[in-house]
Amino acid sequence: MKIGFLGLGQMGRGMAANLVRAGHEVTVWNRSPGKADDLVSLGATLAKRPVDAAGGEVVLSMLADDAAVEAVVYGAGGIAGAPALHVGHSTIGIALADRLAADAGEDRYVSAPVFGRPPAAEAGKLFVVAAGSGVALDRCEPLFEAIGQRSFRVGEAPSAANLVKLSGNFMIMAAVEAMAEAMTLAEKGGVPRGTLLEVLTGTLFGAPIYQTYGDILLEDRFRPAGFAAPLGLKDMTLADAAATRLGASMPVLGIVRDHLRALIAAEGPDIDWAAVALSVRRGAGL
Ligand code: NAP
């Protein structure tokens, strides 16, 4: 399929590479063009403007946040009005997803945020959460197969997928907070973090989220950031906006969002969101 890919950050690079490897004819664009070199070596074509990558059947975007997506769609050289079906993989708010869908028209915009960190993107093992019209989603299926291990259809309104993604990220952050608090408690009482983790992940908490983040907390693997704390704070803020819009009370969300703020203030932005554990430990005098 002739496609475009916009945004070659930590996630986008691996996703675009897997689309090239799957045999698609891929034109890529990134704000900082140097990041496209490896993909061009792999066989992709480099576009000068986002719209130059949106002349084929589908254009996929994987950008930092709402502001980045707005710039790439509605800014100079943006893809608004281009013929391609736009598949938005970025984690953005539900209001922007609704706007993109309304402006693009039926069958022309799909939200498809993903679960999985950069190594999963590189390995083509993401989970894709998609929403949009059935016709549009059918067209995307071979692309989702190239980037992910499984895709889910969660509704006709594209913003349904963003709501699922934001809910999931809130649950990840709440799980990390809970693990960090439990590990700190154990450590204060003389039980090594690793011992606690071994017991809990080997009994009641065997889910991938506890395994993956448990190891990160155990080894203090916070730099380089796989998922940077400012992106995590962005997601908690978007979840909060959704909660306000839909009238849902989420007290735990407020706690994890503030811990992310404190983490970024204390450590700077270039740190993984799991490093909220550092704030938790400091709060216990460790
Ligand atoms: P990243 O490495 O920071 O990459 C961000 C991308 O957005 C880069 O290509 C960057 O371009 C581009 N960008 C930022 N602001 C822009 C603007 N104003 N105009 C145009 N382009 C702009 O982030 P990432 O980790 O790949 O994450 C991308 C998205 O996936 C985010 O929405 C994130 O929440 C979501 N996500 C991340 C993970 C993860 O574990 N990392 C997992 C699931 C979902 P430059 O190269 O020029 O800076």
From TrEMBL:
InterPro entries in the cross-refs: 3-OH-isobutyrate_DH-rel_CS, 6-PGluconate_DH-like_C_sf, 6PGD_dom2, 6PGDH_NADP-bd, HIBADH-like_NADP-bd, HIBADH-related, HIBADH-related_NP60_sf, NAD(P)-bd_dom_sf
Molecular function per GO: NAD binding; NADP binding; oxidoreductase activity
List of catalytic residues: 165
Residue stretches in coiled coil: none
Domain 6-phosphogluconate dehydrogenase NADP-binding: residue ranges: 2-155
Cited Gene3D superfamilies: N-(1-d-carboxylethyl)-l-norvaline Dehydrogenase, domain 2, NAD(P)-binding Rossmann-like Domain
Keywords for the protein's UniProt record, in alphabetical order: NAD, Oxidoreductase
GO BP term, example: organic acid catabolic process
Segments forming domain 3-hydroxyisobutyrate dehydrogenase-like NAD-binding: 160-276
Protein name per UniProt: 3-hydroxyisobutyrate dehydrogenase
Source organism of the structure: Sphingomonas metalli
